[in-house]
Design brief:
Layout: H1 13-22, H2 35-52, H3 61-75, H4 84-90, H5 103-130, E1 142-144, H6 156-187, H7 199-223, H8 226-238, E2 246-248, H9 250-261, E3 263-266, E4 269-274, E5 277-283, H10 288-292, E6 300-306, E7 312-313, H11 319-326, E8 333-339, E9 345-351, E10 353-356, E11 363-369, E12 372-378, H12 394-407, E13 412-416, H13 425-432, E14 439-446, E15 452-456, E16 467-471, H14 478-488, E17 493-496, E18 504-510, H15 512-522, E19 533-542, E20 558-559, H16 597-609, H17 612-629, E21 632-634, H18 637-660, E22 665-667, H19 673-676, H20 680-694, H21 697-710
Parallel strand pairs: 12-13, 13-16, 16-17, 17-20
Antiparallel strand pairs: 1-21, 2-19, 3-10, 4-5, 5-6, 6-7, 6-8, 8-9, 11-12, 11-22, 14-15, 14-19, 18-19
Length: about 725
């Protein structure tokens, strides 16, 4: 019974979790969508959470309400499918999902899924009927796009009216875009503009574009398999524990591994869904299709075959399904039938091999400042290839970039962790050790256990000069620990805005172990379908000063204006997030020459207060706060355009300021040029990256801070006041 799953003693997962999950019944069905299998999956996940989560919530009515609300919210946040009548019908489950075994859970899921399927059929009819008639955009109407602030439609008629409003808004957005686009082309005397369309014709074009979009949208809804909906439901259960405990169906586990390792076996082409057609966006240099040579950007994939097997027509396929067909074991052949941009059709055979996703890897550049060259290292995530011996690790890659920058004679280094969502904690320890002699870097605590220190035991550093770490609200998890460690040791100055606030550790556990246990102990016949895995929060980590990074994140030494400073984002926005706490500090000593953050902050503030770019960021922050509080848009063309103009005005001001401002002088390291010049695609990507860095005023101010760090610090005797 679910109410009795409260034992927090950490008895080994593969024994206790399996016992509770299977004693209530025997799974003998072969249908992976059967109620027995659903029950098996749900009970297994709940028991695994209860026995192994860092702080499992009690299985009671509060848990039941959370699962119910989160499931409905995940499925229909915008309230465009369920009616109040549907919610009332399902509400009989709201307080009983925790009762007994998982039978109520399964029944709730089945009933909810059945109602949702009927609503898909109904609303599909709505959009087809509604978009046949033209819209008028001269009435004082509006739409609220915040699902939290609107009620469910009272009945079918009210639901249809909600779709009228929604489709009118979508059409208005497209219509204004088409109208403004045509106006600009007329103003610049674009000779490719063959016909000037009337407003009526543009409105019809806009409706047709939305109709096509809705057609693809509903086609994908129909393709949503029962097991996909079940995965969503199980994730609603796991999501009541905390934002990072997730159920991973087998295909999602594979994606997770690829994300962490930065590599997979495929062909090396970037794809995009373009009006229902799967087209090649770019060819990644050095990959199998790059070496083969025939596949080009702009080609449309129409069929896919595995070697000599019959090809599969992929027209109408979801792009994720196309990617599944293209990926496969190393050394196997995939044959793509493509329609070239010239109109001809060609079959292209490509042998799969390892594809490295270069965008996830650390890279560096040199910024020429008034006080000499400053090194810049960009690290988008803390990647580590857990699955292959000798696979790439970010700590090793950053060490290589540091050595390259030292050889280039830089006077300081900036490590950019903005929007770095984390990853490998072991690499944080090793990477921080590149800049700190030795000692603890982070503390980790499990439920009921004493905190454990993770130390850098390698004496010495590879770089002792001026160091700045850039962070923002998108910096999370491992990147927060990295920034916190360097801040606590006073080794670096942390620059930017308060970080995300994810201070928890997850572990991926295979649920298929339970299948093995059941087969060994009961002899129950099972098919080979995988149950998937569970990404489970098992620990919290703490700074070496004892404070948690959970919820509060890391507060920078130097705070720069942030457009999102006034709204709740990150971990703090989720009600299921674990709370902040603290433990005793570890034994550590700050570095011999600690960073004088107080003086650096004062110098930076003077510059920021006189920087028009940062003033504009503050204005934009106020506007974003207003939108967050009142997410209502007019359906009257003149009023909507006014709202649009207000939203784009800040961007135009920023463009003007950037044009007038002195740009950073950013160049590549000479040792990197051979790899960069491998082909035109790589050259273009690099040019775009450098261009973005040159006009990055956050980076520009961080360079100024590094220059301040190069100046000799004037020490004042606190007793005499003498310098």
């Amino acid at each position: 019974m679910l109410r009795f799953m409260k034992n927090k003693i950490l008895i080994p997962l593969l024994v206790i979790s399996a016992l509770a999950a299977f004693f209530s019944f025997k799974y003998t069905g072969d249908d992976k969508n059967s109620d027995a299998r659903k029950k098996l999956l749900i009970e297994t996940v709940i028991k695994a959470i209860q026995q192994n989560h860092f702080d499992p919530r009690k299985i009671n009515d509060s848990f039941s309400v959370s699962v119910f609300d989160k499931t409905i919210d995940n499925l229909d946040y915008d309230k465009r499918f369920f009616t109040k009548e549907d919610i009332n019908a399902l509400s009989k489950y709201r307080l009983i999902l925790d009762d007994g075994d998982a039978t109520n859970m399964v029944n709730f899921f089945n009933d909810m899924s059945s109602i949702f399927s009927k609503r898909i059929e109904m609303t599909e009819g709505f959009y087809k009927e509604i978009l046949k008639q033209p819209f008028s955009f001269d009435k004082d109407e509006s739409i609220n796009l915040n699902g939290d602030k609107i009620p469910y439609a009272s009945d079918d008629a009210d639901l249809k009216q909600r779709w009228v409003t929604y489709l009118k808004y979508r059409t208005l957005v497209k219509y204004v875009d088409l109208k403004d686009g045509q106006k600009k082309r007329i103003e610049v005397k674009d000779t490719t503009l063959k016909q000037i369309k009337t407003d009526t014709e543009l409105e019809a074009d806009a409706r047709e574009a939305i109709r096509k979009n809705m057609e693809y949208y509903f086609k994908r809804l129909h393709k949503l398999k029962p097991e996909d909906r079940l995965a969503l439901f199980v994730n609603s259960i796991s999501g009541t524990e905390d934002p990072h405990t997730d159920y991973l169906p087998p295909v999602d586990k594979q994606k997770f591994d690829e994300m962490m390792s930065g590599s997979f076996f495929g062909i090396g082409a970037q794809l995009r869904d373009e009006d229902g057609k799967v087209k090649i966006v770019a060819i990644i240099p050095g990959t199998p299709c790059w070496k083969q040579g025939d596949l080009k950007a702009g080609d449309e994939i129409v069929k896919i075959a595995q070697g000599n097997a019959d090809p599969v027509d992929i027209q109408g396929y979801d792009i994720d399904d196309v990617i599944k067909l293209i990926k496969g074991p190393k050394g196997t052949e995939v044959r793509l039938t493509v329609r070239k941009v010239t109109g001809i059709t060609q079959v292209i055979p490509i042998v799969r091999d390892k594809v490295s996703i270069e965008e996830t890897f650390a890279k560096s550049a040199v910024i020429n400042s008034k006080n000499g060259p400053v090194g810049y290292i960009y690290l988008p995530e803390f990647y580590s290839d857990f699955n292959h011996s000798g696979g790439r690790r970010c700590a090793q890659d950053v060490a290589i970039e540091v050595e390259k920058l030292k050889n280039a004679g830089v006077n300081g280094i900036i490590l950019d962790l903005r929007y770095n969502s984390g990853g490998s904690l072991a690499d944080v320890v090793d990477m921080a050790g590149l800049f700190v002699n030795d000692g603890p870097m982070v503390q980790v605590r499990s439920t009921g256990a004493q905190p454990m220190q993770l130390d850098d035991r390698a004496s010495g550093t590879i770089y002792d000069g001026p160091l700045a770490v850039m962070v923002n609200q998108g910096s999370a998890s491992a990147s927060e620990i990295m920034a916190a460690a360097l801040q606590d040791y006073k080794r670096a100055v942390i620059v930017g805005s308060t970080t995300y606030g994810k201070g928890t550790v997850q572990k991926v556990m295979s649920l298929d172990e339970y299948n093995d246990w059941l087969q060994r102990t009961t002899g129950a016949p099972l098919n080979n379908d995988s149950l998937g895995s569970l990404k489970l929060t098992i620990q919290k980590f703490y700074r070496i000063n004892g404070g948690s990074t959970q919820l509060r994140g890391v507060t920078p030494d130097i705070t720069l204006p942030d457009p999102y400073a006034s709204i709740e984002i990150g971990e703090r926005k989720d009600n299921a997030a674990l709370k902040w706490d603290e433990i005793p500090a570890a034994k550590y000593h700050v570095v011999d020459n600690p960073v004088n953050v107080k003086e650096l902050a004062a110098l930076s503030k003077k510059r920021v207060d006189n920087n028009p770019s940062f003033e504009l960021v503050k204005e934009n922050a106020a506007r974003i706060k207003k939108l967050e509080e009142n997410n209502v848009y007019s359906l009257k063309e003149s009023e909507y355009h006014k709202q649009l103009d207000e939203a784009t005005a800040t961007g135009k001001k920023m463009e003007e300021i950037e044009k007038k401002a002195a740009q950073l002088q950013v160049t590549n390291l000479k040792v990197d040029m051979e790899h960069i010049n491998i082909d035109s695609t790589s050259i273009k990507k690099n040019e775009e990256w450098l261009k973005a860095l040159r006009k990055d005023f956050y980076l520009s101010e961080t360079v100024n801070i590094i220059n301040d760090m190069m100046k000799p610090v004037v020490k004042v005797d606190s007793r005499t006041g003498m310098k």
